[in-house]
Structures are given as structure tokens and as C-alpha cells.
Amino acid sequence: MTRLLGVDLGDKRTGLAAGDTETASVFPLSTLHVPRGKALVAAVAAEAIEHDAEAIILGLPLNMDGTEGPRATLTRTFGEQLQDRTGLIIYYQDERLTSFEAEHRLRGQQDTRGADAHAAAILLEEHIATH
Asked: What is the distance between the alpha carbons of residues 25 and 30, in angstroms, rounded to a whole number?
């Protein structure tokens, strides 16, 4: 079994989810309201420790044609900083349409503030399903 932390990286909000490969169970954790930078790296690293993560799945924002643009470069830089900080393996998961899917899943609910954490959960579900 491998315990995983899913990260839906944003400029102002970053969604987190946890899961494991043995049961394929995934659940949204929280949304960090920390701007991208050293403080966010530290906050995500702390969550990885708290949830005994053995690897981190980081959403990679690809263009709709599958190519990488400037946002993907920023994400890979964040991933390198996170790996340096935690020593954990970072896997990148295509995050195209995860936010849309999260909003769809939350449609009709009173409180949709957890959309970022749900997007992170979708990243984890997709990673587990394809690995």
C-alpha cells in the first residue's frame, strides 16, 4: 500500500486530498489559502507529514492539446521545491477538466467551497486508476 497526497495547485488556493493504492480510497482534505511560494511549499510538506504520505500527486495543467505551457513550468518548479523539502517522489497527473468535474460533483450542494479539495481527489482517483 502506498499513501498518497493529492495537490491541486493554485495561485491563491490549493486543494488537498489523501488516498491509498491498496483500497483505492480517496477523500478530499482541505483547501489551503496560501499564495504560491515558500510558505505554500512548507504548508503542503506539513500536510504530507501529517497524513503519512509516501508520494505526492501534483496536478499538471496541460493545454487542451496535451502540450505544456507556462503554468506547467510553474507547477514543475513547485514540484521540485516540494521534493527537495520532503524527499518524497512527486508524480504529475494531467489535471485537465478536474475543476470542472469537481464543480459538477458538487452541483446542488449548499457549500461548494471544497471544490479545490475535490479537484485534488479527482487527481488522485485518476492517478490510482492509471497506475
From this structure: 16
